[in-house]
Amino acid sequence: MRAGNLQLDSQGRLKHFLAIEGLSCDLLTQILDGAERFAPVGDRAVKKVPLLRGKTVANLFFEPSTRTRTTFDLAAKRLSADVLNLNIEASSAKKGESLGDTLRNLEAMQCDMFVVRHQTSGAAEFIARQVAPHISVINGGDGRHEHPTQAMLDAFTIRRLKRRFEGLTIAIVGDVAHSRVARSEIHAFRILGVPDIRVVGPKTLIPVGIEAMGVTVHHALEAGIKGADVVIMLRLQQERMQSGLLPSGHEYFREYGLTPTRLRLAAPDAIVMHPGPINRGVEIDSAVADGGQSVILQQVTNGIAVRMAVMAMVMGTQSLSQSKPTGGIDGD
Ligand code: NCD
Q1: Do 235 and 283 contact (CB within 8 A), yes or no?
Q2: Greater model confidence, 93 or 212
Q3: 141 in ligand 1 pocket by Cβ < 6 Å?
């Protein structure tokens, strides 16, 4: 990404987490390894480590979110940070305050980190360029651009269940055109060495020229998921669509809905993923969403550990060169 350098400090450490594009395999692997060490915290009776004690995290959500906002919230709290959850839609912006003034006020409250979700592509980078030097910015999804923590939690889920990236076939199915999740995933999977990444969907929902990102395009679901080890279903983002891109949800399901019969075309041990929110009967049959191959809820759980790892890294409490985080994660 253009912000490739903006994300790293002069020592090459992660300062902001804005996009996957442009990051190294080594750095992505450090995030995955960090998440691996944070995951057991969620299984403890006391789900807390003191790594971000004394730090203040502000969740700035300019767009609705449930999973992403709440798992960032939990991640920050499990790291012992103080957390502010701002629903900007319902607050200052409505009263005419500019984004710059909102940011200055949060800086005046001595915040150390902003987690930003915004409907405009590039918003997180824009904010990262504005903030005081001690503040880190994490992108919680910007327009159609990127959703880097979602891609990392998906990669984490795949690595845990498939034990590798080499040799895998991953099919991303549905509304790729409007999906920041798909863009971040494609970058992440390529960087991590997945050899066969397929995007599957109707012509109107697959961006022209997406092959340049290193994927193959399929318009038939059956061919697209054939032999796949991982099938990632995407929601139809009707709120971002102009009219006329799609027939009805019912017709879409007939062509592209993942049913148990169709899933049998994938590898016998294929896993089914979805970033949520799922639309049952539109892109996915309930029997698949709730079935034995679905790992959709594991993705949610894993999102907390991955977000803890990213937050600890940008705050410098988990040095990238260290193999273990400092500050008592183990046995704390
Ligand atoms: C996604 C998003 O908001 O980009 N959801 C999420 O963060 N879990 C995908 C979607 O809204 O369909």
Answers
A1: yes
A2: 212
A3: yes
Any ligand 1 atom below 6 A from CB of 303: no
**Cα 208 from Cα 212, distance rounded (Å):** 10
* Residue 240 Cβ < 6 Å to ligand 1: no
Average pLDDT over the chain, rounded to whole? 92
* Tokens, residue 101: 């003034």
Please name the residues in contact with 79: beta carbons below 8 A apart, sequence gap of 6 or more: 48, 49, 50, 51, 52, 55, 308, 311, 312
For residue 331, give the amino acid letter: G
Query: Could you tell me if the CB of 181 is within 6 A of ligand 1?
Result: yes
State pTM to two decimals. 0.93
Considering the chain, tell me which residue range(s) the CATH 3.40.50.1370 domain(s) occupy: 4-146+303-314, 148-298
Q: For the domain made up of 148-298, give the CATH fold.
A: Rossmann fold (3.40.50)
CATH of domain 4-146+303-314: 3.40.50.1370
Question: Ligand 1: which atom is nearest the Cα of residue 234?
Answer: 12
DSSP class of 22: T
Q: Looking at this protein, which amino acid is placed at residue 236?
A: L
- pLDDT tens, 60-77? 999 888 899 999 999 999
- Sheet holding 271-273: strands in order across? 216-218, 196-200, 169-173, 230-233, 271-273
Check whether the bond before 195 is cis (ω within 30° of 0): no
- How far apart CA 317 and CA 329 sit, in angstroms, is 11
* CB 188, CB 215: distance < 8 Å: no
CA 108 / ligand 1 centre spacing (Å): 31
pLDDT digits (tens, 9 = 90+) for 206-237: 999 999 999 999 999 999 999 999 999 999 98
